[in-house]
Design a protein that fits this description.
The protein is α/β, with parallel strands linked by helices. The protein contains 20 helices and five strands. It has a five-stranded mixed beta sheet. α2 crosses α3 and α9 runs antiparallel to α11. The radius of gyration is 26 Å and the shape is globular. It starts with 6 loop residues before the first helix and ends with a helix.
Length: 444
């Protein structure tokens, strides 16, 4: 089948033109999409127990298809328009179970001692909470090309496309702080307009989830202060345009933005964005420092943060190598190996599409290292901050792990790195360790 007749290709190209906006859709108007996967009721019951009382209708949107291409009022969605659910059918069932539970609790409170009736779905759908925020798309199964889509093909295509595009998002669910940041990003048009989430894979590898969460926290703070008094949820890609293509190895510097004609980068706005909010807290930002320390010469432009091969990810890799070097020297190669495999690999039990799993502290560098410090009686306070904020350590870590570095050179750099901590216990520990090699650290 050539590309012109491939329904996947046709659907992908036309999907964005079919988008009609988001609306609050009553559950009673939602119907299944032919070809979608069957609802797994065991899965629904499991996630009702884990997630049912923390449902957020706005943050976890469904996707649905309208019956035609007629204009639709998304602000006041019509009560007679059915919506075929392409993505989110399990969420609908979890909400229905949640409402049934609420109705039973209300009955028991209002009618003590009486038998609780079985509430039907029809009754559930009349409840004031029986709605969901749905991204709506126009009539798309009559795509004007030959051959036409076969029965069930639309559901198969939509499901496959959804899984492909959101694959990179799956692993955020093992880290609650990263989930919070991504939820916030998805309220900003310049992030929602992205067609792919491939960049998230960089945020969720090698135990760096929480550190990337802090990077996003810095990015959001800068963006809020830049566009003030506008609400950040109104900011589009067009509003943040710069006159030259953004170089991934050299993002827009504060100085270069001063020359931009785009009024969003006016002098006062840039000065605001350079300042750290008074209540800002992050392991990447020293307390009490008024200017940004992480990537301090650059504005964290959305296009730069979203790029998979940006200099931002290189800076984060240097921090990760600093964690790895410190771990090898102080705690030994076995601890490093356990972190490299455990923290870098996704396990199904660590994540969930509907709830925030309880974070496992041994999945992330910044929570694991303090725990290991306690195990050997080393003062852990400030260790993670120093590793994350000290360029001298970052540079030493990169050099000591370079392929071909001599053993003597590795020893010297490792010693100098640890001396920066000025902790006698660590100084004694390093003398008993052999320095790491590139193969030890898996970072050649």
């Amino acid at each position: 089948m050539n590309a012109k007749s491939d329904p996947w290709t046709r659907f992908t190209k036309l999907r964005d033109t079919m988008y009609r906006g988001s609306a609050l859709v009553p559950l009673r108007q939602m119907i299944p999409l032919e070809g979608n996967r069957p609802v797994d009721e065991d899965f629904v019951k499991q996630h009702f127990l884990q997630w049912g009382n923390r449902i957020n209708h706005a943050a976890n949107e469904m996707s649905g298809l309208l019956p035609d291409d007629q204009p639709i009022d998304v602000e006041d969605f019509p009560r007679d328009v059915p919506v075929r659910i392409a993505h989110g059918q399990h969420r609908k069932r979890v909400l229905e179970m949640h409402i049934q539970n609420l109705m039973r609790e209300t009955w028991e409170s209002d009618h003590p001692g009486e038998d609780v009736p079985q509430f039907t779905l029809a009754q559930v759908h009349e409840h004031p909470l029986a709605y969901w925020n749905v991204r709506l798309y126009g009539h798309c199964d009559n795509i004007h090309s030959n051959p036409p889509l076969e029965k069930d093909a639309l559901g198969h295509i939509w499901r496959g496309l959804q899984e492909k595009e959101t694959k990179g998002m799956v692993d955020i669910w093992r880290c609650s702080s990263l989930v919070e940041r991504v939820k916030e990003l998805m309220t900003i048009p310049c992030w929602r307009e992205r067609k792919s989430f491939g960049y998230v894979e960089e945020w969720t590898s090698n135990g760096m989830h929480r550190l990337y969460s802090d990077v996003l926290k810095i990015h959001i703070a800068q963006l809020k202060q830049l566009v003030h008094p506008l609400d950040i949820t109104t900011v589009t890609e067009e509003q943040l345009k710069v006159s030259h293509p953004i170089q991934l190895k050299s993002p827009p510097s504060w100085r270069s933005l001063e020359k931009e004609s785009n009024e969003v980068y006016a002098g006062e706005a840039l000065e605001r964005a350079k300042l750290v909010p008074a209540d800002f807290d992050s392991v990447l930002q020293p307390k009490g420092c008024e200017k940004w320390v992480f990537d301090c010469h650059h504005f964290l432009h959305p296009e730069y943060v979203q790029a998979k091969k940006s200099n931002l990810n290189y800076e984060m890799a240097k921090i990760r190598r600093s964690f790895a070097l410190f771990t090898f020297i102080v705690f030994g190669p076995e601890k490093l190996k356990s972190m490299s495999t455990h923290g870098g690999s996704r396990r199904q039990g660590d994540m969930d599409h509907f709830r925030f799993t309880e974070d496992d502290p041994f999945l992330f560098w910044d929570t694991t290292i303090p725990l290991w410090c306690k195990e050997i009686g080393v003062e852990e306070e400030g260790v993670v901050e120093m590793l994350a904020q000290t360029p001298l350590i970052h540079n030493a870590a990169v050099k000591v792990m370079m392929k071909g570095a001599s053993e003597a050179g590795q020893t010297e750099l490792a010693m100098e790195t640890v001396k920066l901590f000025d902790r006698s216990t660590i100084s004694r520990t390093i003398k008993e360790r052999s320095p790491p090699t590139p193969s030890h650290l898996g970072l050649q």
